[in-house]
Amino acid sequence: MSSTEEPLTTATVAADDGSGGEGGGEAGTEASAETGREAIVRAARRAFTLRPYAEVTMRGIAADAGVSPSLIVKRFGSKEALFNTVADFRAAADELFAAAPAVLGRHLVLTMVGLRDRFRGDPLLRVVFSLGIEDERTLLRERFREQVTDRLAARLTGPDAQLRAELIAGQLLGLGATLSLHRPDGAGSHAGPERLADLYAPGLQRLIDGP
Amino acid sequence: MSSTEEPLTTATVAADDGSGGEGGGEAGTEASAETGREAIVRAARRAFTLRPYAEVTMRGIAADAGVSPSLIVKRFGSKEALFNTVADFRAAADELFAAAPAVLGRHLVLTMVGLRDRFRGDPLLRVVFSLGIEDERTLLRERFREQVTDRLAARLTGPDAQLRAELIAGQLLGLGATLSLHRPDGAGSHAGPERLADLYAPGLQRLIDGP
Q1: How far is CA A4 from CA A121, B127, B174, in A?
Q2: A180, closest residue in chain B (CA to CA)
């Protein structure tokens, strides 16, 4: 997994925060326009994760992303709109839940590892960073509950669907947390996705199948 | 679980940070001396979790704890000594791992829920808050790896002990994360410890038993 090669620097918060793409980038050409967008999203995720909402400025995000503040306004609108863009788990949930229940456990592990590689960070873990912080970031937790837990619960049959969905969400968050926590030298950093799935999927599948 | 009754306020960071006891308290009497100590530890955990090490001051911790800075120095010594006190997972690990491997899965769930209740917060989760932050808090991750993961790995038999220990640690972190994330209205907030263990322990036990 390429993400495990990175040292844990402040920049890696963005990666652990589920952000995508490479940093920097000018927005003068078509090719770099997409790079600029990703840089903005990554900078915004970092800013909203690390600082109270009220202290986050478009100017600060722009400086971090290497673009002009006016470009952010043009692309995303207001600060609130930008926050809403980065505080969204739907794209990750779409991929995570795209399997039949009978094989969902393994699919969840393989997809989580794949998303972490592709986005150079964890697609869900930033919700944990927001725990205990009272400001607009409570929206992050509400979004997670709606877009991940409730959606998962609706797909489960049998008793305790909501509780099982919460525990499945916990195992997914825990997988990302432990992979980030033990890199770059941990056993999880050197294990292939299939081996991780062999070990981690059965517990997930049991919660999916129900008691 | 009493901790689920609390709203998620800034003060709850301390609770989620594994801190113990009630806040405030004068240190003039024997009875309040212990309260003062707990208030200091809780304030220190909050400070070291939320701010860079260099920005944390004994004066700030003292103000938060409702005690004098000189009392902190008298009780804990230097800022570094205080950090070392709060960045320690051994007491939690002692309780978590106090069961034979054959029954450890269930014991882990019940102990985790019990510790969260008793400490009004999660004993391990603060290590996740430190992800991606480069300062003395990297020590928090090293401590976790030594005091939780490596200690667990040493108790496991069979192949992939280190990898399984990392995944078990992940499931423990994930349990705390999801209980905190979905409170106070979540299904996990209303489920008893035994029901949580019924659902969550089998996955842990499977990782303990090995492939």
Answers
A1: 9, 18, 20
A2: B131
